[in-house]
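Notes, p. 3: input format for complexes.
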Amino acid sequence: MLGLMQRRELLISSIIVHAARHHGEAGVISRRKNGALVGASYADIELRARKLMGVLRDLGVQFGDRVATLAMNSDRHLELYYAISGMGAICHTINPRLSVDDIGYILDHAEDGVLFVDPGFLPLAKGAAVRTPSLRAIVVLGEEAEIGTCNPPHGKAVYAYETLMSQAAAAPDWPEFDENTASGLCYTSGTTGRPKGVLYSHRSSLLHAFGVCMPDGIGLRATDRVLPVVPMFHVNAWGLPYAAPMVGATLLMPGRQLDPVSVLRLMNEERADLAVGVPTVWSALLAHVRATGARFDTLKRIMSGGAALPLALVEGFEKFGVEAMQGWGMTETSPLVTANRPKPATVDAPADHACKQGRVLFGSDLRIMGAEGESPWDGKTPGEVSCRGHWIASGYFRHQDNILTRDGWLPTGDVGVIDRDGFLKLTDRTKDLIKSGGEWISSIELENIAASHPDVAEAAAIAVPDAIWGERPLVIVVPREGRAPTPEAIRTFFEGKVAKYAVPDRVAITDALPHGATGKLLKTELRRIYLAPKA
Ligand code: AMP
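Output follows (535 residues plus adenosine monophosphate):
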């Protein structure tokens, strides 16, 4: 027998409709390029998103089409989130810090038809667009003047967003369709090979947003003023663009001004209660506050993720009356799976308990798998972290590879232990990647580039801990016989071949690299040699 309750599809558009109707006075404050702050209520955003649906239809976008964005956090980006997904198309956010080559690959792989860009990313967009036959139009997020003297790439039209918006008629209502329809697409470089696309659905995004709002998730309420430093191009800014309007919290959007001075100014001027981002951002902000004697006027909490949160940061923020907490997840997990929030048993736990990645929120599940099966929750026995749940990926977009175990769990490549209270602590990583300031760097890619240098016989890249960036790459090379390249010559060889953040700052030259019995490079040995504490 079926229940007799109303059935409504879990659609992303329902969030902005609710926010406009019940929290019409709350909304978004965005920092523009010229430093000015502009406000838009959720009622404004809902109306403009319906207009934007009209623009998208005029641009030929249809149900299921991919529409790309190359943009920082702003009210306009939020309009795109709702309008694109709301009409049944797929909001494909792209990381502007990637190389032109990777962006071109991603646009082409997704077959995006239209690309919306912040004015500052227009040169990048044009560079990438030439490799994307499917792309018909580039829309610059601003006024006509912000297009400048842009020569459109061959065969592509370039428009100004506000011009299109001023000519569009608002769609009268939001279409209804199956909640399992794809809503968003985000490529991750956290895998081997080319970036791979994670395809979110309306249902998964909505349920994830509920999880984010839960008191022991990120915990959001109508009176909160939330500053997402985490970008909207990365895992939907941890779901905040959905979670905040869901509860009527105000969003403070920093635009491109992510330096500590600007972030602190926005926090204090706009009375932020909560800010969300990666540890690199928090350590720079703390250093700035310490150095200048500034203070946090209203900030109560920061949520950190993307990399481990060091105890020094937790304690540093505590001195300023700000609680630092962390969550764990990945692009494939929407991202929030765990948050470090107390249980009765951990209220009086020692200070370093804050360095654990946290416990699972309802909606997903976690296990750690050792060689013998699931590892016990004893806080000692490590295993590969695996998850499953309503907002965990089951595959990559247009990839045949089966990424789940036979019993339906996603192995993450992170290694950790779980304690008896269910708190996860990451201890290692099986993926051969380096994470610098929240961005992935492929050690394999660095090795291939180094090895293509005419003076290099063999190369290896490893992650070196870094106080600011979390990790930085160290490239170690063996010269060809009779050649003597300098570290600087190898280092500069990377420029223009990888994203700027991936260019190694250190190169070491050696006679030989350690190999195992099967000829495999022994990275553990390299770490022992190069990361050993200096005597
Ligand atoms: P991404 O898919 O780029 O968001 O990266 C996800 C990866 O970031 C995870 O698999 C972890 O390796 C790392 N990560 C995320 N959150 C944390 C955290 N709180 N502590 C340590 N590493 C984290």
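The pocket of adenosine monophosphate is lined by residues 188, 190, 235, 305-308, 326, 328, 330-331, 335, 357, 412, 414, 426, 429, 440 (CB under 6 Å).
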